[in-house]
Design a protein that fits this description.
single chain; mainly alpha; Rna Polymerase Sigma Factor, Chain: A; Arc Repressor Mutant, subunit A; 2 domains; 2% strand
Length: 165
Amino acid sequence: MSGSEEKRFARLTYEQAVRKYADTVTRVCMMRLRNFADAEDCFQNVFFKLCFKSPDFENEEHLKAWLIRVAIHECVSYLRKNRGVLPLDAAKEQAVMFDWDTSDMSWALMQTPPKYREVLYLYYCERYKVAEIAQILGKNENTVKSLLKRGRERLKSIYGGDTLE
């Protein structure tokens, strides 16, 4: 993009938005797809949409929430089209390749079912509140609370009984 054509997103240029939110979008895609190559495809689609749809954002938090929502939708669409499932052992290999280790919560999240994984990731890793998660995922707040409660139980068993509060 040339200087006069440069797009701005919530006071960030496109390049700054990519640099700032690349890790977040990649992790959202990895949480959903559990395969780095597939996550890369969805990552590219998310930022392609950001560049060419030119949505207006109120602030950077709105931009971040939009990117997460689009990333989730891209992954769902990708899974629908490909119907591929990656075995858990391969997901662990991908986690190592993605520079996660077993002390990182992301590693444990990779072992939880997808319906809990997204909610737990948004709550613990991205630090969203229940109401914000409900809005991003298009779910009822009580549903998000239930998924968090059940997801925490799954994580407790993975970590051997430690609490996550």
